[in-house]
Amino acid sequence: MDLLRVEHVSKRYAGHTALDDVSLAVPQGSVYGLLGPNGAGKTTLIRIINRITAPDEGKVFLAGRELSAEDVCRIGYLPEERGLYKKMKVGEQALYFARLKGLSKKEATARLKEWFVKFGIRDWWDKKVEELSKGMAQKVQFIVTVLHRPPLLIFDEPFSGFDPINAELLKNEILALRDEGATIVFSTHNMSSVEEICDHITLINKSKNILSGSVSEIRRRHGENLFRVDFTGEPSALEHSPLWQRFGIEHENAAEERYRTVRLRLETPQEIREAIGAINSLVDIRNFSEVIPDMNDIFIRAVNGRL
């Protein structure tokens, strides 16, 4: 079941098209990556989902119903532009935002204390926001975003400004929220985080949705028929064979020094079987595997029109 659906949404600003007939479906209980270069239209789409602005065409559905003003309380939104009141105390401000989300003071205080301990900022409750580092302030905003346990969470560049340790902490919390039933959409330029935590992605470029699907399926679909062979034996046995030119074999640095490694391009299952047999007659194959492109490579190829 899809918790969130965007159907044929377009948005224009004074002659500039920010979104052009964009559709996507976010499965319930998944982490969904919203990718694209700067200016592609990601933030505009996020603002439309949050009802900060309205589309010129198209509709947004939440849990099967067209999105309404009442649904805003069912969404937790962490914008890229962080916004805390610098002169207020941290605990006081977090409590204020929690009350706006409909929590009682008692329930909000209990949940906040639990999150502050988990994020290692318990001692900052009575500090002013202006005394926090950027990372600390982002932790507070993350907590406020998820505190009322909305079914849909939207994070815009959530890892921005975090060191590796705190980025890992945040990643684990996002996965835990998903496992507890939340549906998460996040916009990012960090392709390694996409591979680590995203179940599905949509790539927007020049206001259009140019690529959607599960991360594993997209990576497999856009492989380039490259295969890696780790072997022991004399590389010259391969270099002097007809295989070298036929399959475009290239040397590669081996992952393990005790092995030699080459790459080759194979187009059909028949060629794969033939290459394995021929190579194994010349050297001893220790590993034969398809080279699956990473999301960073796919992102660059898609944005440059080479996918």
Helix and strand layout, with pairings?
Layout: E1 2-13, E2 16-27, E3 31-35, H1 42-49, E4 57-62, E5 65-66, E6 75-78, H2 90-100, H3 105-118, H4 134-146, E7 152-156, H5 164-179, E8 183-187, H6 191-197, E9 200-205, E10 208-214, H7 215-221, E11 226-232, H8 235-239, H9 243-246, E12 250-252, E13 260-265, H10 269-280, E14 284-290, H11 295-303
Parallel strand pairs: 3-8, 3-9, 6-7, 7-8
Antiparallel strand pairs: 1-2, 1-4, 4-5, 9-10, 11-13, 11-14, 12-13
Helix pairs in contact: 2-3, 2-4
Brief write-up:
This protein is α/β, with parallel strands linked by helices and 307 residues long. Helices cover 35% and strands 28% of the residues.
If you had to describe this structure to a student in words, what would you say it looks like?
By secondary structure, this protein is of the alpha/beta class. The protein folds into 2 domains: 2-220, 3-Layer(aba) Sandwich (Rossmann fold), CATH 3.40.50; 224-291, Alpha-Beta Plaits, CATH 3.30.70.1150. It is built from 11 helices and 14 strands. It has helices spanning 42-49, 90-100, 105-118, 134-146, 164-179, 191-197, 215-221, 235-239, 243-246, 269-280, 295-303; strands at residues 2-13, 16-27, 31-35, 57-62, 65-66, 75-78, 152-156, 183-187, 200-205, 208-214, 226-232, 250-252, 260-265, 284-290. It has a 6-stranded mixed beta sheet with strand order 6-7-8-3-9-10, sandwiched between helices. It has a 4-stranded antiparallel beta sheet with strand order 2-1-4-5, with helices on one face. Strands 12-13-11-14 form a 4-stranded antiparallel beta sheet, covered by helices on one side. A hairpin with a 2-residue loop joins strand 1 (2-13) and strand 2. Helix 2 crosses helix 3 (105-118) and helix 2 runs parallel beside helix 4 (134-146). The two termini are 29 Å apart. The mean pLDDT is 90.
